[in-house]
From TrEMBL, chain A:
Keywords: Hydrolase, One-carbon metabolism. GO terms for molecular function: formyltetrahydrofolate deformylase activity. The keyword Cytoplasm does not apply. This is Formyltetrahydrofolate deformylase 1, mitochondrial-like isoform X1. One of its GO terms (biological process) is 'de novo' IMP biosynthetic process. Residues 42-125 form the ACT domain. CDD domains: ACT_F4HF-DF. SUPFAM superfamilies: ACT-like, Formyltransferase. The gene is LOC103716541. Pfam families: Formyl_trans_N. The keyword Hydrolase applies.
Automatic annotation (TrEMBL), chain B:
It comes from Phoenix dactylifera (Date palm). SUPFAM superfamilies: ACT-like, Formyltransferase. Residues 1-35 are annotated as: Disordered. The keyword Transport does not apply. One of its GO terms (biological process) is 'de novo' IMP biosynthetic process. Pfam families: Formyl_trans_N. This is Formyltetrahydrofolate deformylase 1, mitochondrial. The lineage of its organism: Eukaryota, Viridiplantae, Streptophyta, Embryophyta, Tracheophyta. Transmembrane segments: none annotated. Keywords: Hydrolase, One-carbon metabolism.
Amino acid sequence: MVVAGASSSSSSSILGIASGFFSRALHSSKTSSGPPTAVHGIHVFHCPDVVGIVAKLSECIALRGGNIHSVDVFVPENKQVFYSRCEFVFHPARWPRDEINNDFMKLSKLFNAERSVVRVPYLDPKYKIAVLASKQDHCLFDLLHRWQEGRLPVDISCVISNHVRSPNTHVIRFLERHGIPYHHLPTTPRNKREDEILELVADTDFLVLARYMQILSGRFLESYGKDIINIHHGLLPSFKGGNPSKQAFDAGVKLIGATSHFVTEELDSGAIIEQMVERVSHRDTLQSFVQKSENLEKQCLAQALKSYCELQVLHCDTNKTVVF
Amino acid sequence: MVDPDKAPSLPHGVSPPLSHAQEKRSEGTEPDLDPMTLLRRTAYSSSASSSILQIAGTFFRAPHSSTAAVAGSTYGVHVFQCPDTVGIVAKLSECIASHGGNIHSVDVFVPEDRRVFYSRSEFVFDPARWPRVLMDNDFSNLSKFFNAKISIVRVPDLEPKHKIGVLASKQEHCLVDLLHEWQDGRLPVDIKCVISNHERAPNTHVIRFLERHGIPYHCLPTSPGNKREDEILNLVKDTDFLVLARYMQILSGRFLDSYGKDIINIHHGLLPSFRGGNPSKQAYDAGVKLIGATSHFVTEGLDAGPIIEQMVERVSHRDNLRSFVQKSENLEKQCLGKAIKSYCELRVLPYELKKTVVF
């Protein structure tokens, strides 16, 4: 029987074995009954570089009948660090989920890995996220719609906002329809409501700041301890801080952009995940700068989240990322 | 001998079929130079502003210019900036049409929030019907009428090309690219000289190229105490604008005032990010996923003048500092080339304090 355990990186939710097994069996196989025939797995690995890592990783997968479909390996020129990401298909009957964990754990120890994560999207619970937003809706909407369409493989445990939204607004009705709690936590300069937020998001795997305009303190970041992805409406490191569209407009630039990045204590300075640009010209007004920017923010944040959920984003150095 | 005034004219708004000369021009090469054209070119090579059309020469040219009686086959460009009011486009276009000119392209821009008018018109005309000096007068009248801040007309085939001085330092990729584009006829300028604070030996590509084409190379090494600005000013005083092709010295406000004309710089970064030195390294250390280049007008603030053009390219974890630099150099060449071309085609106009209109 397949044990549908949690992936090593998410917190301790155990999938109901019976219901998971049967529901996935119905979904995944082309035949009418029986266990899933072939399931996709992803493994990412980050360790000090030596000869033989790829050989051992691929051998581990092949021994269990896994068939590797995609490999990305990256070893920087000037550092002895190894990053890899493998996609493979396997048969859970031949390679049960908890044994996958054990097998990779052994390799992780063997190579003294800084990070070794395996994820089987079909069997593992989706990432649980909370979304923080302020008054600007566009990124939040876009995220919610993508999620509804199944293009954002997450569970949204709640939406937190320092901006009040009345019951008849699109966002509130949407969240109600889908049973997602909305928590209104207005902030003041003195009170950022961080303890309450921490409590609400304690069970999540990562946070998404969808144009959340409050700065999270170092204390919050340490307490939460997990990744937080932000969208900045400018091409970092240009135009940090407030109203980058106006800054860009006043500067007479011909390109504007958006940046999604991990949140660190310093404002708009964490490792960049994705950047996108669009052309602007003299014909653009501040309003069209803002519109183009909002469009970019939605795409850029969505792309970053997608990459992150597919284990394509790895931390590299102190302030950079590998994005496979 | 055909009297062009008696030649049948096309109805207003109908474009003439392209003559052989026009077809060649539209392919980007020089039209065949008949002896009359050469005569006219020689007469006008001295300066852009005070060229007088020789009517006899153009008169004889008339039979060459088209296969049917036409509005004309000579291209002109007019740019205009004035306080906005009703009727400017009407008057400008009427001016052109009344002299038999046929407008091929118009860009007009009036910002939402300011009463300023910008336009750029391309038109074809027959210099026999609309002699160059009369054209200048006609536009000058309109300029006064509308109290224009800018009114420039340019007839590329009848006027000398823009004269430029190019300044470079040690990095030569932009300089080399510029010289090759010029040689290929894709950069419609006359390069008066190349000035560098970096020495180049006689057997280097740049020096041999410049010698072959008779372009003087002036090595003016600089020191913190001496930027050689007076000597540079002297060497470039006859130019129409300057190009800083990765020239790494900062030109003083005094230099800018003395020179008085436009200076275009290429900055190897996406301004306003990474001002100053080594932006590739700054970008690399910042872990950005996009790098870029910016060409802009030079003002007293470093890397702060109005931006003309920007370009980007993606970078990733697979890029090292060297590939950051290579991608950057590639962008710089393209970005500077584009900016110079736009400028020569009168597409770039100053807009508010720190911006540009680029048609």
